[in-house]
Design a protein that fits this description.
binds D-xylitol-5-phosphate, 8 strands, 8-stranded parallel sheet, 7 helices, alpha/beta, about 30% helix
Length: about 220
């Protein structure tokens, strides 16, 4: 099963709630909310207030992608705001094992994101605490960047590592996902595709863009 997860970083901020509801109406299971602190990622985006505002509007999974240097300080705030899954970067916390335990203890799913320079094997000893692995296919910070093709090999390695240990952890990808790159990442073993500018844009509606992405995967 492949799922497309729209990233609202690319949405129209004057009507963020509507854009989230459009995604839900288009049949997505989750949307991703990118949290950036201007330090871990060279940009500033949203805070827990946006999660709290969107929560009553949609039933879908609210995926909170924490691109911040000290995620441990904010785990409970985002869960209280309505997050269903917290994704932290392997490169951020001092003690990833403890951070993942803390996320699970808050009763939500725990995801780990890997920057393009971070090898897959760093996760070998925490896989029992992970519900999703997100391979960054761009360097964190902005939507609309070019897909980094070298990450396809990392996705394949991860898939092999998980299959070898019979671990059914979905592999997500984030950055530069469109109708050309979506089939490539699925072929490599990814099943959760975060997409910003290919879902939210002036060219077509959310539903039309979603249909085009899914068609590109089905026709691969
Ligand atoms: C980048 C974010 C991505 C970004 C994806 O740091 O984590 O989610 O919004 O945008 P596109 O799909 O346009 O590359």
């Amino acid at each position: 099963m492949v799922s497309i997860v729209p990233s609202i970083l690319a949405a129209d901020y004057t009507r963020l709630g509507e854009q989230a509801m459009e995604a839900e109406a288009a049949g997505v299971e989750a949307i991703q909310i990118d949290i950036m602190d201007g330090v871990f990622a060279p940009n500033l985006s949203f805070g827990p207030g946006v999660v709290k505002a969107l929560r009553p509007l949609v039933k879908l999974t609210l995926d909170v992608h924490l691109m911040i240097v000290d995620p441990d300080r904010y785990l409970d705030v985002f869960v209280e705001a309505g997050a269903d899954r917290l994704i932290v970067h392997q490169e951020a916390p001092q003690h990833l094992h403890r951070t993942l335990q803390s996320i699970r203890a808050l009763g939500v799913e725990a995801g780990v994101a890997l920057n393009p320079a971070t090898p897959a094997h760093v996760l070998e000893d925490v896989l029992d605490l992970v519900d999703l692995i997100q391979v960054m296919t761009v360097n964190p910070g902005f939507g609309g960047q070019a897909f980094i093709h070298s990450q396809l090999a990392k996705i394949r390695r991860l898939r092999q590592m998980l299959d070898k240990r019979s671990l059914n952890i979905p592999i997500g990808v984030d950055g530069g996902i469109d109708t050309t790159t979506a089939p490539l990442v699925v072929e490599a073993g990814a099943s959760v595709l975060v997409a910003g500018s290919s879902v939210y844009n002036e060219t077509a509606s959310v539903a039309e863009n979603m249909a085009a992405l899914l068609a590109s995967i089905e026709s691969r």
